[in-house]
Amino acid sequence: MKKIILGLLLCLPLIANAQDDKKYLENAVPVIDGKVTFTTEIKAPLNQQQLFEIVKNYMQKRFAENEKFPSCKVTLADASKGDLVGIGEEYIVFSSSALSLDRTRIYYMLHAECTDGSCKLDMSRIRYLYDENRDGGQRYKAEDWITDEMALNKTKTKLSRMTGKFRSNTIDLKDELFDGIEKAIAGSLLKKETKTEEKVKKEDENKAVRIITAPTTSVSADNTVTEQAPVEESQNKMILKKEKSPAAVEIKDIAEGKTEAKPLDDSAVSSMKGYREVKASDIPGNFYELISKDWMLITSGNKEKFNMMTASWGTFGQLYGRPVMTCYILPSRYTYQLIEKNDTYTLTFYKSNYKKALQYCGNHSGRDENKVKGSGLTPISTPDGTMAFNEAWLIVECKKILTQSFTTDAVKDEKLKAQWEGKAMHKMYIGEVLHVWMK
Question: CA–CA separation, 165 vs 14, rounded Å?
């Protein structure tokens, strides 16, 4: 009797914590066609075959056959359809101590459907074998054991004392599986980006290799033959000379307002070759870090006149049912004049090897100098005529739907209000995301 009471006491902290966590309560266990079925969809800029291989590798490790869990295996791996099925068998431990071990064996099926840009997952056919060391154990189906009706109290505000631990731990297992596949996909994307960066770095290093031209001779007016020493020149210098073509100089000067604005030939602006258009919901990564840590360029204008500025403030989300991005610009910035005159603008994001270029754009004004030339970035035009830069791995084209100038009267934080008192504050631009391009 004492052991039973002690076992119940050891379970109480787990039950109490679960009751306080809303993720285990009402509607946390979905029932589809009479079966408990957890589902999710992971979107990523990869094709069907790439996603299939990532998920297959994860499942083969997770569902490796072994004597301890004989049912564990991958039962389907159809690359042509992108379908994978893994059968899981493992222990869920509710509590463990020197005096007692409370656990259940759980069986389930994990199905993955991979298509271009998407991986749909569902976990179903969940069963339990509890207390198997006592008379063969007790068997339960998820439909009869962890649903809202079975595992919650009447008001749906608490987990039941017995079935609640099965419900909360099954939800945790589901999260572990879905998160594991999502992390595997994200890790693959990171490796792909790292390899791309290493390739670019290697290409840059190869460009820096010095070349030696053959010796040349010349004949002076008095017929004296002179042999000139070999000329040593780097490919980087040759590239810079190439950038100084009339078309390149013209577009950079026009960008900064140093020459008379006039339409440019399409040949003066690089195309968007190498980019593919994706949905706003498919943008990978942590947007907080993309903006605040990695920074972005705000570029406004067209081929006749444009300018860019570095920014580390901004948001990404939804407004009035539309995907939107928000940025903030001081009226004193040169870009402010252009974004006020144009409806569209771009927000562009770069890998770490372009950090110096973004620093340059943040410390120099296009009003005073040729900032495009100084940054070394290559202007490109979107199909709609908005300007961006070819070095960006992500280009987001936006159209203004709402703007608002900040005033100190609207500031509620006293410290912030004192900081900006008597000064012109930023103007907020909320733009609908029209197009997203990725390399």
Answer: 8
For the entire predicted model, the pTM comes to 0.45
Count H helices, E strands: the chain? 11, 22
**Pairing label, strands 83-96, 101-115:** antiparallel
The answer to whether the CB of 121 falls within 8 A of the CB of 25 is: no
Domains of the chain: 2-188 (3.30.530.80), 235-438 (2.30.110.10)
Our CA angle for 340, 344, 348, nearest 5°, is 110
Of the candidate ranges 67-71, 158-162, 265-269, the one whose mean pLDDT is the lowest: 265-269
Output the average pLDDT for the chain: 81
Of 303-307, 365-369, 398-402, which range is least confident?
A: 365-369
Distance, CA of 161 to CA of 377 (rounded, Å): 63
**199 falls in which pLDDT band (50, 70, 90)?**
low
The tokens describing 183, both together, are: 């992390």
The set of residues, in sequence order, having a beta carbon less than 8 Å from that of 117 and lying 6+ positions away, is 43, 44, 45, 46, 47, 278, 282
With 0-12 / 13-18 / 19 or more C-beta atoms within 10 angstroms meaning exposed / middle / buried, residue 285 is middle
Residues 41, 220: Cα–Cα separation, whole Å: 77
Report which of 58, 289, 39 is spatially closest to residue 185, judged by C-alpha positions. 58
> Per the structure block, which two tokens stand in for 422?
């008597």
